[in-house]
Amino acid sequence: MKKLLTKKSTRMNLLTYLLVTVAFIVMQTLASNDMLKSSTKGFLIPVCSYIVLAVSLNLLVGVCGELSLGHAGFMGIGTFAGIITAALLADVIPNGTVRLAAAMIVGGVIAGIMGFLIGIPVLRLRGDYLAIVTLAFGEILKNVISNLYVGMDSGGLHMTLSSGGLKLAEGGVMIVSGPRGATGVTKLSTFAAGFVLILFTLFVVQNLINSKEGRAIRAVRDNRIAAESVGINVTAFRMKAFVVSAVLAGMAGALFGLNYSSITASKFNFNTSINILVFVVLGGMGNILGSVISATVLYILPEAMRGLKDYRMIIYAVVLILVMLFTWSPKMTAFSARIKEKITGLFRKGEVSHE
Question: Model-level pTM?
Answer without folding.
Answer: 0.87
